[in-house]
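#lab-general

N.A. 3:47 PM
ok so I finally got the sequence cleaned up, no stray characters, all 112 residues accounted for. can someone with queue access submit it? mine expired

B.Y. 3:52 PM
send it over

N.A. 3:53 PM
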Amino acid sequence: MDFVLVTDRSQLDELAQTGKYAAHLPGSATAIALVMEDFDDPRLREDARFDLGQAMMSMMLAAAKGRTPRTRPARRPVLRLPGRARPPADRPLKPVKHSKRRPFDEVVHRDH
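B.Y. 4:20 PM
back already:
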């Protein structure tokens, strides 16, 4: 999986024409395209799609940080949580270190 950062105005304008969910791009400072290898093996292709979805979700959550309400224990009665269910912690999770990850500069491409 790779990430392509697009900051070029003309490229953002051109990307905005590619579909209804891209219409906001001309007003954006940056667009990030997630790309994956075109695997022949269906299992590898599905694994890569799953990983892309996880990366996309993580980026969306990071972008929303500070703008979303936090769930505190005092909200438990309002949420009517069942049994042992509890709200998430009010602090971010520590990043997991993976020794097999590719270096940042190898997976992030700027204005290609």
